[in-house]
TrEMBL record:
Name of protein: Surface antigen
This protein's record includes keyword Signal: yes
Organism listed in the record: Micromonospora peucetia
One protein family per Pfam: Inhibitor_I36
Organism lineage string: Bacteria, Bacillati, Actinomycetota, Actinomycetes, Micromonosporales
Source species, domain of life: Bacteria
Length: 281
């Protein structure tokens, strides 16, 4: 199923957050390997033509950017029409032979702010009208889905002014709104789901309750983690949950004012922890 995200503007809302100390760590997305132009079990495969005809480009992991020119791009490798062409913006159908849901994005870098299409395990279907010949990246998701740690925020370096979602640029709330829109595909903004305002970070749990958005006591990748303590609270985007119970977050305005950081944290009420998790999907 595809989703096209449209920017929605609402009334002015603000979130301010003081800076403290943390640890920066960034991981890279998985890369495809052992590509031979045959769609084997465990692979996600693009086809050059609709209805699974033409050359195949097979992948065993997420790819944030296929490249757009030869040499060096990820190409269609199998026999048939399209063989040797770059896969970016050239695929018409796909077959997901993995045990993960695979999400195909209209933009590179797993940017779903405009459009994406999900392929459930075993799905074998055409790309929809929006994604056909407009496939720029894909990401393997699952019940234990992870999101690559990255500073993809479009207003990096800006600490003043209002973003299109009606939060202050450079604040944790602005980055969290961007992450929900671009990575999860939720058209979030400061008046989302009919709320007067989601407001400061510490107000998001109450706003979620009023809006009917589930709030949990343990994290899942894709959640918004909330710290309720402090003057304004703090929110961050959960990128992965680790087997030892810790989890990782992408965030803004925590390690340094108006800047990105990635941390491994735990559930709790300390200033460096998060106690609530808003699950939009």
């Amino acid at each position: 199923m595809s989703r096209i995200i449209v920017r929605v503007l609402g009334a002015l809302g603000a979130s301010m957050l003081g800076a403290t100390l943390g640890v920066l760590a960034v991981t890279a997305p998985a890369q495809a390997a052992s590509r031979d132009g045959i769609c084997d079990a465990g692979e996600f495969c693009y086809y050059y033509n609709s209805s699974h005809a033409g050359s195949i480009s097979d992948h065993t992991g997420s790819l944030a950017d296929y490249g757009s020119t030869q040499p060096g791009c990820y190409e269609f490798k199998g026999a048939g029409g399209g063989q040797g062409l770059c896969v970016k913006n050239n695929a018409a159908s796909a077959w997901n032979r993995t045990s993960n849901t695979v999400r195909v994005y209209y933009n590179s870098d797993y940017d779903g702010s405009y459009a994406y299409q999900d392929f459930a395990p075993g799905a074998k279907t055409n790309l929809n009208a929006t994604l056909k010949n407009n496939n720029a990246s894909h990401q393997f998701l699952s019940a234990g889905a992870t999101y690559p740690a990255k500073d993809d925020y479009p207003y990096k370096g800006q600490g003043t002014g209002i973003d299109p979602w009606n939060f202050y640029k450079g604040q944790c709330t602005s980055f969290a709104a961007w992450a929900l829109r671009s990575r999860v595909g939720v058209p979030f903004h400061n008046q989302y789901a009919g709320q007067a305002r989601w407001g400061n970070a510490k107000e998001w749990v109450a706003a979620a309750g009023r809006a009917g958005v589930p709030v949990h006591n343990s994290p899942k990748a894709g959640d918004i983690a909330v710290r309720l303590g402090g003057t304004y609270g703090h929110v961050a985007f959960v990128t992965r949950v680790n087997s030892n119970g810790t989890f990782e977050v992408d965030e803004y305005n925590y390690v340094s004012a108006d800047k990105y950081s990635h941390r491994t944290v735990s559930v709790g009420t300390a200033n460096s922890q998060f106690s609530k998790f808003i699950r939009f999907k």
